[in-house]
Design brief:
about 15% strand; Calcium-transporting ATPase, cytoplasmic transduction domain A; ATP binding; 40 helices; alpha+beta; nine-stranded mixed beta sheet; about 1200 residues; 33 strands; P-type_ATPase_IV
Length: about 1200
């Protein structure tokens, strides 16, 4: 490509002062590579040598799966028998092959095998998907040196240590490489590390001087060398090693290392030699093993099973003791049982043996208390819930074609219990696009378009003002608009709201300085210099777009790109860069003709996070030397000369306004230099640049600081950081739902703070607590200082009396390393929890995972981590729920996640709608399951006690088999799949409803025990009412009394009616499916009874013709069914009626409003209820708008007295 060839001639290293210092071997000796941790030896271009011992390095194959072919069976079985109920049924299945079993072996083993097999098949399917994603990465192609200077394609998984690879522009690096050369003649290349640290700013990497000649395929024909370096480790920012090449030893440092999963940018190609492969690479060293996650409800279910198992043990002990007593004292009198010739199980002389053996029988007989079908029903429900999530059209992204995806269905209900969200920044909250929106030049503000924050504030103010009907307020409002509030910069027309900038990176609008009109402005010279700074002060490369004939820019940061696009649109187009100059095409000039101007670059002092500014020193065509500087306003204002503060007051006011509007700001300044002054400084600068020693960087900084003084302020820029669509609104809704949001990013602190403002996690007036580590070699001193900062900050929050005060905690990775130590992490967590928002910047992937673990374990609440890159995998796996963004950058985050969405904004619906629904559905379903099994299981115990603890079941075996499988399974599944307390629209309108999940209102012990108590009550009613009704009186017209078959069938009919009516009362939302399943189950029971009764007596036994001949003609059968059903459900109806009348929950009130259509008939009341249904929050759009409104009202109140004072003086 022509552009590539032009760039290749530029020695880019000359542009950089701080990033690209290349010490030669003579300046800085080789590293001492000795001792443990430094044993790796790499033979360059000789990969086969590493297959032999003792080297035998790992392959480049990677795997993120939980299982492999060998481990699947043992690990998956272990996962399944982690569940207490499955363990119990495994024991029961083993015992079922003995004579002690009251059931056949098949009837015990088959259900267990079905449940476990289904769950294992689901696990296998989910892991297979992970395997296929891994294979996509492993089968990517890269150019590898084969032999004799010939390169050929090879899949990533076959790349070996020592291979020489050629990576081309926009490709990912397949392994950790040592950079040998690039398409630039001085070995510079640009790398995007977004997958590693989340940063979009391009990093400059440089090859050693000695390997620069290796710049084409032929050069590697006879290339050899040896690298001795550190062993594999997770540190992304360090590397220690030496290269032995042509009998010389050269030191290596991180600036020569290209890490796996980072991407080559702005560089045609690079050559590199592979150092670390596969799981030895630094990005994979930062990865953690895919954990097995279980939801809180599922973990709590284990405790409920323990309770039920204890209960089962107690009643089984009672039964066995009763049986032993009966055997010893009563069996000898029962001559018809022939006690003298019985076996040990029924031997009156061995009652203890009889009791123990009966204990085993009882444990199996009452096994219906432990619901084996619960797990398989939950699996079915969760899969169907996951299908609804996958099919939700509201979470489908049309741009990418990606739907939401529940990659595992184990955690659906956990989505409804999230307390803290830990989010990545780049690619998750942002889409890495900046838009130039406003600027302040020579004390005048330009740019009439409004930011998203201003639009929201204006909209809310308009709503508030409509509610005020007092005439004086109206007058004040009108005057206030004109004089004080200046709403014309806030309120925009509908056309403007819907306007979309056709120019990427430029949303500016102001006719005063567009299309050359700036020439008519009073301070045109200052405006021209402002635009020139935008066009000159950068490190970007222009590329001509042949289709549009305009230039695009490959810049190191999105901000820089936006400035260049803005300069181009203002008529100052940067179109060419040479080694020593930049060329600007100025479209508008005083002569009226376009002019091409050349500015010679004398020095460039680039932006670093420490300096917070960038400076270029140029010579214009008139020979004048100019220092042009852009940077953070706090830094620039400190460096202004006395004469340079002319516009400081106005610019400061504008900067504050821009900050309130959520915009990123930079101040611009300049200085004219005399030739002699510059020459003297440049001599000092060159001395510092070529000095040898550890203090070289400090000397350079000092010399640069000397020149960047006595500046003259010109103005400021305001750039809107283009967040992903809907991010501020989503964060606002999540905040209203009571969720806490932390941002964990590898980006620098300034960028993270700006993003915090853009998405309303931070706002003007919020008190920022910045915890930073002091520079000291003594670790104890640093630790003490950080601990003191944390303690002081915690104390400050406690002493704060302003109810509207909000605190934000900002901490960097270096400080976090100390804060996460065992002796400090609880204090750090305590401070973080007290803050409204937390931003951790410059954090490594490992630290992201550690912070997530701290929040998860320290608070004991549910955490959700969301990210889009490989650097987020650790925290995604560590969190209770991991959500991956299926965006542009790779699929590593999605592969490691539990759920994936195409954009951050879909998280709102995933949690507030699906999370809320899934939590309530699963909670109600599990509670109902225990209720129905207790109600059914205890009737078996009562009957056995009633019949001398004989082990006799009152129900036919077929009834018991059908109870869980057919007659009560579908209604409970429909509850778990279709139940909605409120609609999805209402969930989003009333976000506070979400708090029912984190507060666990529907699955606390009070509710669980309440349902168990309901089951106990129902079992007593079902058994004893039927016994009372049928015991003494005739139940048929012929005077016959009921036998065991008639009693058992009637009791079972009552159970089916009572349980299905109970679930109907529990549901709030009915579709035809629920009606079909509930009433269909009852009909199915009668159909079964009819058909079963028609079958031969050899199969149906005592149930032969039982419905047609015995029960159906007997009125007492129907009246008993009605009486028992009503009696069973009466307490629940009374409870729910009392609750709705006197202690209604939020959703009860909403249901009533919707039922009486008050939301349609009384819109004001509906709006009032909606505003009340917000959790009080100090972050998000709403909190920011509230703060803005408080500020505007304050101004209005201050203006009010003056309006009242002047009104009598106005002419009448």
């Amino acid at each position: 490509m022509a552009g590539g060839r032009i760039r290749a001639r530029i020695r880019r290293s000359h542009l950089y002062t701080f990033s690209c210092l290349r010490p030669s071997a003579t300046e800085e000796g080789p590293h001492s590579i000795e001792g443990p941790g430094y044993s790796r030896i790499v033979h360059c271009n000789q990969p086969l040598m590493h297959k032999k011992k003792p080297l035998n390095y790992r392959s480049n194959y990677i795997s993120t799966t939980k299982y492999n072919f060998l481990t699947f069976l043992p690990k998956a079985l272990y996962e399944q028998f982690h569940r207490v109920a499955n363990l119990y049924f495994l024991g029961a299945a083993i015992i079922s092959v003995t004579p002690l079993s009251p059931f056949s072996a098949v009837s015990m083993i088959a259900p267990l095998a079905f449940v476990v097999g289904l769950s294992m098949a689901k696990e296998a399917l989910e892991d297979w998907r992970r395997f296929m994603q891994d294979m996509k990465v492993n089968t990517r192609k890269v150019n590898v040196h084969k032999e004799e200077g010939i390169f050929g394609n090879k899949s990533w998984q076959k790349v070996q240590v020592g291979d020489v690879v050629k990576v081309e522009k926009d490709q990912f690096f397949p392994a950790d490489l040592l950079l040998l050369s690039s398409s630039y003649e001085d070995g510079i290349c640009y790398v995007e590390t977004m997958n590693l640290d989340g940063e979009t700013n391009l990093k400059v990497k440089r090859a050693l001087e000695v390997t620069l000649p290796l710049d084409d395929d032929e050069a590697f024909k006879n290339f050899t060398g040896t690298i001795k370096c550190e062993d594999p480790n997770p540190s992304l920012y360090t590397f220690v090693g030496n290269l032995e090449y042509e009998r010389q030893l050269y030191p290596l440092d991180p600036s020569q290392i290209l890490l796996r999963d980072s991407k080559l940018r702005n560089t045609a190609f690079v050559y590199g030699v592979v150092i670390f492969t596969g799981h030895d690479s630094k990005v994979m060293q930062n990865a953690t093993k895919s954990p097995s996650k279980r939801s809180r409800i599922e973990r709590k279910m284990d405790y409920i099973i323990y309770v039920l198992f204890s209960f089962l043990l107690v009643i089984s002990l009672i039964s066995s003791i009763g049986f032993a007593v009966k055997t010893k004292f009563y069996m000898p009198d029962w001559w018809y049982l022939q006690p003298q010739s019985t076996d040990d199980y029924y031997n009156p002389e061995k009652p203890v043996v009889s009791g123990v053996t009966h204990l085993v029988t009882a444990l199996m007989l009452y096994g219906y208390l432990i619901p084996i079908s619960l797990y398989v029903s939950i699996e079915v429900v969760k899969v169907l819930q996951a299908t609804f999530i996958n099919q939700d059209i509201q979470m489908y992204d049309e741009e990418t074609g990606n739907p939401a995806q529940a990659r595992t269905s184990n955690l659906n209900e956990e989505l409804g219990q999230v307390d803290t969200i830990l989010s990545d920044k780049t690619g998750t909250l942002t889409c890495n696009q900046m838009d130039f929106l406003k600027c302040s030049i020579a004390g005048t503000a330009y740019g009439v378009r409004s930011s998203e924050v201003e639009l929201a504030a204006a909209q809310q103010m308009a709503i508030d003002l409509e509610d005020q009907d007092v005439e004086r307020s109206t007058v004040s409002r009108q005057k206030g608009k004109q004089q004080e509030i200046e709403l014309e910069t806030v309120v925009t027309s509908k056309d403007e709201k819907n306007y979309k900038s056709p120019i990427k990176g430029f949303s500016f609008e102001d006719s005063r300085i567009m299309k050359g009109n700036w020439l008519k402005e009073p301070k045109a010279d200052v405006i021209k210099l402002f635009f020139r700074i935008l066009a000159i002060c950068h490190t970007a490369i222009p590329e001509l777009n042949e289709e549009t004939s305009s230039y695009t820019y490959e810049a190191e940061s999105p901000d820089e790109g936006a400035f260049l696009v803005a300069a181009r649109e203002f008529g100052f187009e940067f179109f060419k860069r040479t080694q020593s100059s930049v060329f600007i095409h100025e479209r508008y000039s005083s002569s009226g003709q376009p002019i091409e101007r050349e500015f010679k670059i004398l020095n460039m002092l680039e932006f670093t996070s420490k300096r917070k500014r960038m400076t270029v020193i140029v010579r214009d065509e008139d020979g004048q030397i100019l220092l042009l500087c852009k940077g953070a306003d706090s830094i620039i204002f400190d460096r202004l000369s006395k004469n340079g503060k002319m516009y400081e007051e106005d610019t400061t006011r504008h900067l504050n306004e821009y900050g309130e509007a959520g915009l990123r700001t930079l101040a611009l300044a300049y200085r004219k230099l005399e030739e002699s002054e510059y020459s003297a400084w440049n001599n000092e600068f060159q001395k510092a640049k070529t000095s040898i020693g550890a203090d070289r960087e400090a000397m350079l900084e000092k010399v640069a600081d000397m020149m960047e003084r006595e500046l003259i302020l010109i103005g400021a820029t305001a750039v809107e950081d283009k967040l992903q669509k809907g991010v501020p609104q989503c964060i606002d809704k999540l905040a209203q739902a009571g969720l806490k949001i932390w941002v964990l990013t590898g980006d620098k602190m300034e960028t993270a703070i700006n993003i915090g403002y853009a998405c309303s996690l931070l706002r003007q007036g919020m008190k920022q607590i910045c915890i930073t580590a002091i520079s000291s070699d003594a670790k104890e001193v640093v630790k003490e200082n950080i601990l003191m900062q944390i303690t002081n900050a915690s104390q400050m929050i406690k002493l704060e009396k302003d109810p509207h005060a909000a605190f934000a905690l900002i901490i960097d990775g270096k400080t976090l390393a100390y804060a996460l130590g065992d002796d400090m992490k609880q204090q750090f967590l305590g401070l973080a929890v007290d803050c409204a928002s937390v931003i951790c910047c410059r954090v490594s992937p490992k630290q992201k995972a550690l912070v997530t673990r701290l929040v998860k374990e320290g608070t004991g609440k549910t955490t959700l981590a969301i990210g889009d890159g490989a650097n987020d995998v650790g925290m995604i796996q560590e969190a209770d729920i991991g959500v991956g963004i299926s965006g542009v950058e790779g699929m590593q985050a999605v592969m490691a996640s539990d759920f994936s969405v195409a954009q951050f904004r879909f998280l709102e619906r995933l949690l507030v709608v699906h999370g809320h629904w899934c939590y309530k559905r699963i909670a109600q379903m599990v509670c109902y399951f225990f209720y129905k099994n207790i109600a059914f299981g205890l009737t078996l115990f009562y009957f056995e006690a009633f019949t001398g603890f004989s082990g006799q079941s009152v129900y036919d075996d077929w009834y018991m088999l059908l109870f869980n499988v057919v007659l009560t399974s579908l209604p409970v599944i429909s509850l778990g799949v279709f139940e909605q307390d409120v609609s999805s629209e209402v969930c989003l309108q009333f976000p506070a409803l979400y708090q029912q999940g984190p507060r666990n209102l529907f699955f606390d012990w009070y509710r669980i025990l309440g349902w168990m108590g309901n089951g106990l009550y129902s079992s007593l009613i079902i058994f004893f009412l039927n016994i009372i009704i049928f015991y003494d009186q005739a139940f048929r017209a012929g005077g016959q009394t009921a036998d065991m078959a008639a009693l058992g069938t009637t009791m079972f009919t009552c159970i089916i009616w009572a349980l299905n009516c109970q679930i109907a009362l529990t549901m709030s939302h009915f579709t035809w499916i629920q009606h079909l399943f509930i009433w269909g189950s009852i009909v199915t029971w009668y159909l079964f009874l009819f058909i079963y009764g028609m079958v031969s007596p050899t199969i149906s036994g005592n149930a032969y013709q039982i419905l047609v001949e015995a029960l159906a003609p007997a009125p007492i059968y129907w009246s008993a069914t009605l009486l028992v059903t009503v009696a069973c459900n009466l307490p629940y109806m009374a409870h729910i009626s009392f609750q709705r009348c006197f202690h209604p929950l939020d959703h009860h009130i909403i249901q009533e409003i919707k039922y009486y259509r008050k939301d349609v008939e009384d819109q004001r009341m509906w709006s009032r209820e909606r505003s009340k249904a917000r959790q009080k929050t100090k972050i998000g759009f709403t909190a920011r708008v509230d703060a803005k409104i408080r500020q505007l009202r304050g101004r209005l109140q201050r203006k009010q007295p003056s309006l009242e004072t002047h009104s009598p003086m106005s002419p009448s």
